[in-house]
Sequence to fold (426 residues):
Amino acid sequence: MRTPEHQAHDRDAADPGHRHLFHVPPADGGRYPEVAYLAGNSLGLQPRATRGELLADLDAWARLGVEGHLDAARPWLPYHELLTGPAARLVGARPAEVVVMNSLTVDLHLLMVSFYRPAGRRTRIVIEDTAFPSDSYAVRSQARFHGLDPDATVVRLTPRPGEDTLRTADVCDFLAAEGDTVALVLLGGVNYLTGELLDIPAITAAGRAAGAVVGWDLAHAAGNVPLALHDWDVDFAAWCSYKYLNAGPGALAGVFVHERHLGDPHLPRFEGWWSTEAATRFEMTPVSRPPATVEAWQISNPPILAMGPVRTSLEIFDAVGMPVLRERSLRLTGWLEHLLDEVTADRPLTVVTPRDPARRGCQLSVRIAGASAAELAKRLRYEHGVIADAREPDVVRFAPVPLYSTYHDCWRVADALAATVEGATS
Ligand SMILES: *Cc1c(COP(=O)(O)O)cnc(C)c1O
Fold:
């Protein structure tokens, strides 16, 4: 390590972020009191405010029973509306376009009920070859549900030979050439494995110009990069809240449907009593009256105790703002990149995430040649207190999260890699 440790401390003093709002797991011994937590892309840390807010919702239930639906300080019936404004601002949407409900893969299925409608020649679904497995399984099962052969229906986009990430132009060229056979484009905004941020507006425009519906899985993009889903004309999107959104393991997901689809009576949807307009819901009529908002995609009454942590988390994003977070993210990830360059130069390690900051969020993925990523991550964890995420066979992912990660966390990553992976000259 050429860069001395004190430089990291200097940067942290000058650019402290919002770490004080979070619980950072303690280290079990070792040189530092806390772990270096680089796995916020897998599970975000717990905001300090979450516990108290959750207990307040539990207390309302204890004191009020069923009357909490109307009488709780935050009444349960309209509780989900508290999340709408902040969630909409987070992804650049209008309030009518966003709702928090269910979990991510469930929501992708519900959205595909509406937006994957194979017909004639236009049957194919375009994903990335490195799509998150859940998305891959979801689209393959949708193909089967429509009586189609998943191998023939699902197109998996691959990078050019010798490259690790997709080129926007290649994706757009594919859509221009073969788009008349494509019913749905469903890509990850930020790829979970490589950390690549795709050009969402350009690919959305290319897909729509080809007559396809374009949806985005924003699991690794929401809370990581600025988004403008409405202006980008995205058809639909969904994201989970337990990665960058810090709402806890298995937290509820968010859904976006563009305004132009809202209130469309020809769009198939699965319905339940939460799909009908709130004003007449309790008239208990046999036929629903769906509102002209994305809430028409809701089905069940929402889990209030699961919504509290999402609300608490979104309040932090609302208060700090994505533009401020993105600025710190660029500084922090740039610093990690600089440190990794010092370490990887003479070691069998390669950063596979795009070098252009405009083409990535905060995550940097490192490939290790000829060794197991899981083994490496284990040694980083147990010898150095660095928590990162390994994806077999050979990628370890490091995510310096702009809300709470430090420059010193990044320094510890590079220092630990230098000590763990043997170099050509060491
Ligand atoms: C994390 C993640 C998921 C997880 O799906 P759940 O339904 O929340 O379990 C799905 N897709 C992507 C791209 C992810 O990153």
Q: What stands out?
A: The pocket of pyridoxal-5'-phosphate is lined by residues 103-105, 132, 134-135, 188, 192, 217, 219-220, 240 (CB under 6 Å). The chain has a mean pLDDT of 97. Residues 78-319 form a domain with the Aspartate Aminotransferase; domain 2 fold (CATH 3.40.640.10).
